[in-house]
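Weekly sync notes, structure subgroup
Attendees: PM, AL, DS (notes)

Item 1: joint prediction request from the bench team. They want all two components modeled as one assembly rather than separately. Inputs as received:
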Amino acid sequence: MEVPIRATGILGFTFFSLLFFICTSSPLHNLFISNAERRIDATSHIVKVYLTLKVENAGSTPTSEVLLAFPPTRVDHLATVEALVTKGKRKKTTLVRLDVKPTELPDAPNGAKYFTIYLANPLNSGESTTLEVLYLFTHSLEPFPAEIGQSESQLVHYRDSALILSPYHIKQQTTFIKTPSSKVESFTRVEPTNRAGTEIKYGPYEDRPPYSFSPILIHFENNSPFPVVEELVREVEISHWGNLQVTEQYTLVHGGARHKGVFSRVDFQSRPTLSGASSLRHLLARLPPRVHSVYYRDEIGNISSSHLRTDSRKSELEIEPRYPLFGGWKATFVIGYGLPLQDFLFESSDDRRYLNFTFGCPLLETVVDKLTVKVVLPEGSKDPSAVVPFPVDQHLETKYSYLDVVGRTVVVVEKKNLVPVQNSHFQVYYTFKPIFMLAEPLMLASAFFLFFVACVAYLHIDLSIPMLSVRGVNIRYGCAKIKPISKCVSDMKETKLSDPADPPAMNDSSNRSLGG
Amino acid sequence: MATMPILPNMPALDLIKSFKLKTKQQELLIRVSILCLVYILAFITRLFSVLRYESMIHEFDPYFNYRTTLYLTQNGFYDFWNWFDYESWYPLGRIVGGTLYPGLMVTAALIYRILHFLRFAVHIREVCVLTAPFFASNTTLVAYFFGKEIWDTGAGLVAAILIAICPGYISRSVAGSYDNEGVAIFALLFTFYLFVKAVNTGSLAWSLASAFGYFYMVSAWGGYVFIINLIPLYVLVLLITGRYSMRLYVAYNCMYVLGMLLAMQIRFVGFQHVQSGEHMAAMGVFFLLQVFYFLDWVKHMLSDTKLFQAFLRITVTCAVAVGAIALGLGMLSGYISPWTGRFYSLLDPTYAKDHIPIIASVSEHQPTAWSSFMFDFHILLFLFPAGLYFCFKRLSDATIFIVMYGLTSMYFAGVMVRLILVATPAVCLVSAIAVSATVKNLTVLLRSKNKGVQTGSTKGSSSSKASSKALLDQSQPFQKNGAIALLFGAFYLLSKYATHCTWVTSEAYSSPSIVLAARGAHGSRVIFDDYREAYFWLRQNTPPDAKVMSWWDYGYQITAMGNRTVIVDNNTWNNTHIATVGRAMSSYEDEAIEIMRSLDVDYVLVVFGGVTGYSSDDINKFLWMVRIGGGVFPVIKEPDYLVNGEYRVDKGAAPKMLNCLMYKLCYYRFGEMLTEYGKPPGYDRARGVEIGNKDIKLEHLEEAFTTSNWIVRIYKVKPPNNRW
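Output from the run, pasted for the record:
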């Protein structure tokens, strides 16, 4: 894993510097960045990068597009890119979110990937603007050593470039990297570099040409657990009787350094800070308010270690896996809860209904590798369509639940590599006639009705085959045989003979009396 | 009805009149509603554990049944029937389809299919959890009809009520107890009922039905052997007491021949009906019946009694001789297998203790203590003899059957704790007869006396009955009070029974045993979910082909919940394999590692209660491991682990005990642990002693996982060291 990345890093660097000389004439170079500040937060396993760019238009034509470049190896781990611009003067500044879209450029040096920020107002020649860009990387802290024992702390490698990769000329730039603790084993020096406490500062660097790249490697302690949900299937079932049932199936893994050797419960219990410091003991799920009938279980039953705290604005579910998760250990579980429908289902202006629900994973600080959201619409609903704020795969399925005849339409939405920041809302529109709500109660009622009708009919109809004469013969025959051998015929048999009702038809005769 | 409002005068009265039922209708309505209530009661009284814990499978064997049911619903019947299970009895494997009674799984799968066909999207686990209560409810209906058949409707109703809440039955049929017995008791009682009905009516249809009932029983539980021996015994008793009849002939022949043929379709039973010593009694009685019929016919043809006597003697001698020779030849040639050890241990309670330690090691195979009879039957224990008295007083084919069923099953219940279950229906039925007959007599007394008072005071009685009435009148005050007192006594006893049953169900029989609950220091409930913690850890964090060695008790649970291969499990079919595991557990570590490597073991799982005070752990079971291991491998000797015949784990324990694998695995690093305030470290709370070996070093194994309360400890077998 480690060698190829390093190799591509070095290769990339040489290529980029080469390519810089090749591509010179491009409308891109009307822009340049006068000041860039980058703050990288590596305290948890989701690496957050806050980038402040001051962009100036040196060209003659106004432009409204600003490009961000990423090395191809890192773009796979890029979960989200957001750009904001500050508006207004000193006192009343508001942040305005800008559109960001992935872009392909034909002459991208060494496969660099781009994102385009679309400015709200075109940047005229000579003007400048300040952009706030936030992007998150997942799976970017690589544990080194890759396997640790129970009492060791978790060390990770973080690779980046000391210089901001950009298609623009950057006049001045600084990079700060924040580590969770002051324990840093080593870091690459690209002068000027200095380290203070939990922060490493690269820069300021002056006048770097486009596509400058200077790989750095930081080796530091990060004892936070790395909860990674490999797969999450969220099923949202709408019932027009007033309930929204959510079922979430998790495959959770600790993505940090793999656990090696012994797990000792004595050490774990008696020295919780030293032993298993990076283990995942509990998780916090933030659920919508007014949640009810919450459950937390797995394939083999209920897991009793969970706590639910509710208030008027949110509900917090604290869950503990059955066992503490060490690096590489897995756990699968299911969380389910019900919600009042009126909080999430609305009627749109064109007489359709729509569900407005959060898209992402309710667990905090968790990376989701693959998310599947299934919205189960009530039986009889038509024309479903999902509106999701980012690109996703979607298709339709059919599901059969209690008392379904034609099945329920399921809108399936899939997304890869998701972080909690993206827990934005999405909508599913559909049309539904309220008369369908009555289908299932009517079905049940008619089934019971038919059952009782059948009972009444059974009591009134005599289904027995008239076999009294046959049985009479039988009994007489039996008695004729018995008398010679047995000493006496038991009194029971006599009562049998004298009893007018024949035993097999006893039920029928007694039942018939109800009708008669 | 539609015209009612037009008549203004007496609509209400008319309405009431039109709704007024006849006495018979009233009686039917009451009967049906009582039965419905009993049906529901039988179901809901078994739901304590679901309400208190969750909808889960209990105990040990049910986990295997659940796993197979899951397989059946996922892969279909043919795959299930031909299933070779690689995950148990490594490296031997197990032919599951041929070594289980499929009735339970097929029943649950069928219910599951039906529910899904009706669009009830239930999970198979819910079906499995609720199968036993559902069948218990059905049993109450069968008990009603059975009681009606042998006595009267009242006895039937009482029997249904008694069996609905009888702890002896509840112990094996609470929700989650997904075991063969859950459906088998229903099948057993149903077969008996159908057979008695067939004997009473002589009808081929009932007899055929009882053959199918028998088939279901054979498919559901090994206890069918009880049926196939009790029914011939019953027939034999009827023959001896001169109650032979054509009805009996029809009923038994049809039931036996068809039942036998049907039973052969179950692979686990196969040809045992014609080849095994346990089934020979039925065959012998079958032939005896033919001889009887033949003699009857000859007697009918011959008018001379002397000639018949001679003929009778010759025929009987010949028949017995032929039978004895056939049996002897069969035994000698090995065609007919002798009785199995399990069967012997039923007839002779001390047999298993001396010869088969693996049977004797199971707690539910121990002889029953008086207290558990009292616990499981309560007042039925006293009502049973009374019921027998009533049965003898009104002897009939049916009452003879219930008497025999009651007496034989009571004997077996005394031999083995778990067979209380088989006795329960009989005890309930016989007691129901006692209750019903007593209450009926008392109420008749009360009623007739009232009438007598009325007639005596208002009119002059007729001359013929005057004397008797006078007699009745004389004893009336005493009789009336006595009857009322006795009735109240009966109701008091019955209500005591109801409260006792509820208490027992709630306290003793409704814990899943996989989740342990205890009272915390502040009175709150503490749950120890360590078993599932460990099994789930195994399931998620070990290689899928890992082999786990543990004592056989946990085999089914490890395969079902942990989804990992085990060396031995609760289907104790191979004694040698179990003894090998027992030997490994009781050897020193360097000897044990050889055995474990030869078995390809990756993980070792032990259950340890020293921290929580959980007493049914492996240290307490250890002597059985030694005994079973020593039974096959004489190198293991029980006295090596004892000090002066005493089993101890503290400083005074035997050196072999302190250094054997089981001791090391249980107490590894336990010496550093403070379990109880004011006690030294390494204080074992389950046995109340400080352990004798606190400095345990493991050479070939390493601790892989220990649950939060230390109940389950899992060790990994280290790979062999490199030679260089």
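Discussion: Residues 1-8, 452-471 of chain B have pLDDT under 50 and may be disordered.
Action: AL to compare against the crosslinking data before next sync.
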